[in-house]
Amino acid sequence: MEQSFSLQFNLVDEPWIPVVDKAGVSRTLSLREMFTQAPAIATISGEIPIMNIALIRLALAIMYATYREVGAEPGITDDDLARAWMDLYRSGAFPEGDIDSYLDEHLEAFDLFGNHPFYQVAGLEYQAKGPDPVSELIIDMPKPGKTLFTMRAPQSLTQLSFAEAARYLVLEQAYSPAGIKSPVVGYVGAKGGKAYAPKGALGTGWCGGIEGVFLEGDTLFETLLLNWPLIAQGRHLLGVSGDTAPWERENAPAASIERNPVGPIDVLTWQSRRIRLIPNERGTAVSGVILCYGDVSSPVDKRGVELMTGWRRSLPQQKKLGTAHVPLMPRQVDPSRALWRGLPSLLSKVATLDKASTEDLRSEVIRWIDYLQLNYKDTPVQSHLIRIHVQGLSYGTQSSVVEDMVDDYLDLDSSMVDADSSAVKSSVEVVKQADDAVSALVRFVHNVEKANGNDRPQDERDIREHAYDMLDRVFRSRLAGFTPDQDRLAYCNAWREEIRCVVERMARDYLESSGLSAFREAGTMTSGRAISIFKLGITRVLGEINYEPANQVSTKGGHDGLATF
Fold this sequence. Notes:
The protein is globular, with a radius of gyration of 27 Å. The protein has helices spanning 31-36, 50-66, 68-71, 78-91, 98-105, 162-175, 220-226, 264-268, 315-321, 343-347, 364-375, 422-451, 460-480, 488-514, 527-542; strands spanning 17-21, 26-29, 41-44, 132-133, 212-216, 231-232, 235-236, 257-258, 273-279, 286-293, 295-296, 311-313, 328-330, 350-351, 358-359, 385-396, 401-413, 521-522, 525-526, 553-554, 562-563. By secondary structure, it is an alpha+beta fold.
């Protein structure tokens, strides 16, 4: 039913973006205020963490669009762009009027309602039913009988404020699950009154198919600049021909369109869904939504436009697609692994498939800072503490349900973005040695249980998970403290000693708490022999390190035995 009143909620001037300022005060700002006050803002702070990267991507698209004319200047060079970026970073704020003028030029298209509703399709209707409840817009809303990372009660959510609806609208375009949708009027290809995820393409929102990587500075202004590469793969990113935002184009059709993103603006604002928000009868909130599939693409070989993820070569995709080359696929989040465990793919070059050389498949936002530090000794990001943040969702059941969320970060000296640095190579080596030390701990536990006649040893995954949890603080602290002034060998040796202390303490604690005998024997295995094998394995992995000998550990509860580490 059509509304009998005129609604307006313009994102340029209405407060809708939640932030925390440098004084620790939470506020809600408009788009215009977010840019003008960016030097005083610490971070964006949405209802759920992944809302941060979705809103950052929107802000970056506006920056690329605002300054696109710079890239169109005749004869502009790589050096011109790099120095323009560094000058802007040093200034500490966006030039007065630049972004304001751009937002004013497209003011009408930033309204949630009207003839060209923001991130939506005007007049969108379902083919055979009325609007869905607004809860269908909320990706952190539990399905019946399911729980997720939300404090919401399903029965309590009947409407959203315009500000909250705007945030979830941006999030939906980025991370919407796949699955069966209701076809809208104009949708082509429905089967049995249902719209299915596109075959051979990404069914989720664009960000749902990548490991979202972004850098954080001390302020929102620094964060936006750090994630705004102006050159990638030898290509200038300002003024890419045909690279436009949805608010700069005509209304999208109701039908899905198969196409490829043109440039950074296009991919940062990718319209993976056709959506229309439905206000309540009083026009005071959003109570319903119409939602179906929108622009369709594949993330294969999109490194030239998607700047905020790492990449990997995929032989299975080559076989599936029948390509002459081995295609690049974006890395995806892994909820089971702490970010530091993925350090090799995050910070270092990787071996090519034929092992003959190395290839730099890091995210372009990291490579951009590396490029500036390598070529400009006066760059303002030299010897600067930065935070590498990874966010994303993992899905289940053909990507139709959200299973888990990843929100992890590492604090590092900016020198660590140099893939060829000795610090990065040493850190990657220590991560590998920690993995090997944990494997030695797993073998130790299983050997002790074998010696005591246990035919059903502990689940290896549980042992590993607990060990990595215990090592987590060590790695985060050590990585943050690995600055260029450190003696690399001494620093890494102390790091290895901490790893040794953690895994040996876990082994002792296991013996103490298990109540297993150190003298029982099954076949050729005893607990004493398990200890010897463990200590030898740890020494092979971590080397000979001088440390105070640990106290003897005696079993409790009347069991005999004595174990010395």
